Each structure stands twice: as C-alpha cells, then as structure tokens.
Amino acid sequence: MPSLISALTTGLLLASGIHAVPQGPFGAESGIVSAVPTASASTAGVAAAQPTTASASSSNAASDISACNNSPLLCDRAYNNVTYMGAHDSSFLRDASTGNSLAGNQYFNATVALDAGIRLLQGQVHDANGTLHLCHTSCTLLDAGPLEDWLAKVKFWMDNNPNEVVTILLVNSDNKLVSDYAAVFEGSGISIYGYQPSDGSTASTTWPTLGNMITSNKRLVTFIASIDYSPTYPYLLNEFDHVFETPYNVLSLSGFNCTLDRPSGQGSAGNAISAGMMPLMNHFADSLIMQGVQIPDETDIDITNSADTTTTGNLGLHADTCVKQWGTKPVFILVDFFDHGPAIDTADRLNGITATGRKSVSGEGKKSTSGAGENHSPMGINVALVAFVGFALAMV
Q: From the UniProt record, which GO molecular function terms apply (predicted)?
C-alpha cells in the first residue's frame, strides 16, 4: 500500500503543479538569495551607513536624473545602503497561464512586478535538454520557459526605464558553468547593463551610488548561486561571495528569524556583516500538505506581507527584528505574492522614502483557493489531490 500511495501521489503532484521539495546542493528548495547591510532607515531606528561612490563613465543613460528607483532620495545612496523588495520565484505564476498552479509563488509576472517597484527578481534555473530554463524544482512540474527569453523581457523593461537599478538572483540548480549563463545573458542583450565590481570574487563595503550606476548605464547586478566567479564574465557574481541569507524553509508564521542560514562558513550573521556581505531576508512561508510535499502558503499572505509590526509573521515585524539584531537593515527581502501587503511598503519604510512613478497592483491579485483557471480546468485535479492526500494519510 505505501508504494501505491507514493506512485499515485507523484502522479497527482505532476498533474496539479505542486512541488515536492528536493534535497539539492542548497537544501530543500534550492533557490533564494540576498540580504546585506544597508541603512538610512530612520523609521527603523538604524543609523544610515555612509554612502560610498564610484566614478561614473558617460553613457546614453539619462544625464539629468530626477529619481532613482522611484525616489530622488536614493540617487546618492550606495547600492548596499538600499533595501530592495524582491519577488521570490518571480517567474512561477499562479494565474490563468498556469491553470492557477498550486506551485506558483506570484500572481504577476516580472515586468508587472518591476512596474510596481520590485527591484529584485529571483528564480530557479534548470538544464532542459541543453537549454537553461526557469523551472520550479523540476521542469516536469512547472516550466516558465527559457531563461534567455525571460531576460530579454527584463531587458526590454530596463530599456524603457533608464533610471532604475535592478538585481537578479538565480539558483544554479544543475550546477551549470558561468560560461553557460554568460551565453544566455549575452544572447538576450541584457549583459550590456551588467555592473562589474573591481573585484567580483570577494565581498566589498564599497559600492557605487544608484545615481552613478544609472549614469554609467551599468545598473544590473546579477548574483548566481552557486557559480565559480570568472573575470571573463565579471558581471556574473557568485551570490555567496557577496550575500548571506536567513532561513527559507519556513512552515509557520512564528518561524521567521534573522539567523544566518547560508553560507554556513560565515558562522553567524554578525560575522557575515563584518566581512562586508549584504543580508538577504527570506520572508515567505510554505504549507506542508504531506511529508515531503509543500506549497506556497497563500492562505496567510495578508498577514505575512503586512508592513505592520505587531503580529507574529508580519513582514514589518520581521524586518525590524533583523534591524535590531544586525545593527543594519536588510539589503534584500524576498516575498511570495508581492502585491499583497503590499510588501513594497516595508522597503519604503526602511528606505525612508515616499515613492513615485509606480503602477499599483495592490489588491488585484486574487487568492486562487479553488485552483480554477481561465484557460485550464485544474480545479478537479486539485480537489482530487486534497481528497487523496486525506485518504493517504488516513491509510498510513
């Protein structure tokens, strides 16, 4: 009976888009990143870090910059002195295009997220028959297509938004070479925006200001976990040379904390910050539906993404807790279903800004509890799965 249950469960998971959590080189979900010290969060009680600047070369970027990342106050801030709100698994959607897949982490795609103020896009990359694809855990479960196509769309958005600095974080799930990623970045054309640190192999407390990055038109920062850094492709950075992360496999709203999870070699968040690493605060929860099977927690998302600081699980409370423990604010934050909250409010508070020029999608994303899609009809599959899981657990 256990083997039959296992086989049936696998089949239903494949049909419904639910992901079983794999134990890969980075543990259970092989895909997240970033968090570093930055600050100027007067509302969070953090002393502002001294902005560091780098000389900017002339380019075709706007020379008269009125705002950087939706605020004039950010133009003179060093890159590592800004908090960037990020969309976790940004290409894996729970919408009509995926039949409202239960594995989806976002209601809106990357360019909509960018319009709404998201400035960190994270995704998992797998090798699909020799082509790098954005796949959720497995390309059999949820395949968002070739990485190059996705990058081309992000580039198009950057072409049309010249005053914005964007960060991409990719999980190198199949341990592909940095040259494989370079081919895709160059093929999409987005590599022209790639920022190149003077020494990309080690963490640094000296980053240019957003204004300088925009003026030089080198305004895309790319971290990949994990690659071997190569000076041949200096715009592709190994994430764990520069960023440390808090735990990500959270199954309850009381599970969020500020301890260092990766890279373990740093020992503690304090050590990582002292070494110049930027903190990435993972703030998304999963629901465990049976052993080894978990899905993004959609039910509690309005609590999870709230800017409030009073309720366990609130994004605002988690951020303030980390600020107190680290003595600096997170540089990167990753959330699911970014439009709820809306999550961007917490980043704005930490940055001490009132943003302009965004397109609001707050409240538009609908919780897909039925699983019904516009062009697909997976509701029966999802309902059958729930019924089957209940039966399977009763039999074990």
A: phosphoric diester hydrolase activity
